[in-house]
Amino acid sequence: MDELELEFELDTRLANDCIVLGDFPLSRLLLMNDAQYPWFILVPRRAGATEIYHLSCEDQHQLMDESSELAETMADSFSAQKMNIANLGNMVPQLHIHHIARREGDPAWPGPVWGKHPTIPYTKEKIDQIRSRIESMLTGEVSFIVDKK
């Protein structure tokens, strides 16, 4: 574990809006707590990183690998017609990559999901189902965090 990872702390807005599912070798895997969309976020565990180019070349490649694996898993698992993948950071400057499985007829289709509708939090049972589904489908090196609540 390097110094930047030791100093990593998840932005409080992400911590408040998301459920921590686990860790890829580089990134923390989060589930946005909005049951209207399958919406996951990858946050590289590198203190101070706000842009992809702030990462080393090795970390940039690792992030792309993790993002691709997550997107493919989500597309298969949630029957996505389109995967929306975005790095915005206007509200939360910490580097994070949104992965949203979109389908015609979802509450915001075809527009963006941000601010379209009030969030609908997941139930504990639904979180457990999603965690189990994603855990069984991800093939890379992912350490899942057991929810102790």
Automatic annotation (TrEMBL):
Molecular functions per Gene Ontology: hydrolase activity
Domain HIT: 41-109
Record bears the keyword tRNA processing: no
Stored InterPro entries: HIT-like, HIT-like_sf, HIT_Hint
Domain of life assignment: Bacteria
Pfam families referenced in this protein's UniProt entry, alphabetically: HIT
Keywords (A to Z) from UniProt: Hydrolase
Protein name as annotated: Diadenosine tetraphosphate (Ap4A) hydrolase
Organism for this UniProt entry: Neptunomonas antarctica
